[in-house]
Specification:
There is one protein chain. The protein has two helices and four strands, in the order βββααβ. By secondary structure, the chain is an alpha+beta fold. It has one domain. β1 and β2 form a beta hairpin.
């Protein structure tokens, strides 16, 4: 199963490299696009849950790395909930 990484810029300008066990991220994000924090979180939840499910379908178990990545995104995003107009930019994909 092809895995990928996607690079995101958080509201504080920090950059994080995120992991997905599937290319499904490409169906939910576009490089160079900025998403509201809420939209980014929801798209991340959807994409990483689909990715984990694809691993389960193929190998018989969920991908713990996808779940861990989603938890990390949720934790980081929570820090910016109080920032008015907080947004996240998808910088690039890396396969």
């Amino acid at each position: 199963m092809p895995e990928m990484r996607f690079h995101v810029r958080w509201p504080d300008e920090s950059i994080e490299v995120c992991y997905s066990p599937s290319l499904v991220i490409k169906d939910h994000f576009v490089p160079g696009t900025t998403y509201s924090l809420a939209d980014f979180r929801e798209r991340s939840r959807t994409a990483l849950r689909i990715a984990a499910e694809r691993v389960r379908e193929k190998y018989g178990f969920y991908c713990s790395l996808a779940h861990d990545q989603l938890a990390q995104i949720e934790e980081t995003a929570a820090r910016f909930e109080i920032v008015p107009g907080a947004s996240v930019t998808i910088i690039s994909f890396e396969e």
